[in-house]
Backbone:
């Protein structure tokens, strides 16, 4: 099951011109971004095959990307602030080259420790959920609606991160400052640092650290 707050966030962006401004940050500090409240909905117990799969992936990735610093050196970048589930999301800008040991999204807690991941596959390339790729129940797959993420800096100030709905002019692999300004998303005088379009995707996410609610639960009480 995909964490509720991120799917709710993407859905909300479809009906709003932009989400409330993220709390600005210094480069070394986490960004806070308003997220939809996460739920603690019951989740079907993980099967032995699912537990073995999650354990195998966790062993490898917790050793390879234990902290956000390792993820950044490998090409991931922080694209959200800390959500209501206690994590921020790092993305490697790749919706194509991903497999079991190469997820395109990693979750880090407030201390910068790896705690979970997502595999996201664009629906344009996968009309049906790619359930054959991983040994998990088909019900674990959810949908993340299209949206965008971007970050900018005003002068020499701190970095601000935002998310917004994807309008026609923003459905592009190369979103520039001019397009964002045309949508009234980029303040006058701001320097755009990065922006990307997130297409509608099939999503499989789970916790890599122990969770008494199970690896596919929305919330993990061990991550705050």
Residues:
């Amino acid at each position: 099951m995909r964490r509720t707050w991120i799917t709710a966030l993407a859905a909300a962006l479809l009906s709003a011109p932009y989400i409330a401004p993220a709390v600005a940050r210094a480069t070394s500090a986490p960004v806070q971004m308003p997220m939809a409240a996460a739920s603690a909905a019951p989740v079907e117990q993980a099967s032995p095959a699912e537990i073995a799969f999650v354990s195998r992936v966790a062993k490898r990735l917790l050793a390879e990307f234990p902290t956000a610093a390792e993820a950044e050196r490998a090409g991931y970048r922080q694209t959200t602030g800390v959500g209501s589930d206690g994590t921020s999301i790092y993305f490697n800008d790749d919706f194509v080259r991903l497999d079991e040991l190469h997820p395109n999204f990693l979750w880090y807690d407030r201390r910068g420790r790896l705690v979970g991941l997502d595999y996201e596959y664009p629906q344009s390339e996968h009309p049906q959920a790619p359930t054959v790729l991983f040994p998990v129940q088909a019900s674990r797959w959810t949908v993340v609606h299209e949206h965008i993420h971007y970050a900018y800096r005003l002068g020499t100030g701190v970095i601000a991160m935002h998310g917004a709905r994807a309008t026609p002019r923003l459905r592009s692999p190369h979103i520039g400052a001019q397009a964002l300004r045309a949508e009234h998303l980029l303040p006058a005088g701001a320097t755009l640092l990065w922006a990307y379009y997130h297409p509608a995707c099939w999503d499989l996410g789970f916790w890599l650290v122990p969770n008494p609610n199970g690896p596919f639960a929305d919330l993990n009480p061990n991550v705050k």
User: Anything to note?
Assistant: Residues 4-147+199-207 form one domain. The chain has four helices and nine strands. Helices lie at 4-13, 48-64, 68-73, 177-182. The CA atoms of residues 10 and 145 lie 5 Å apart.
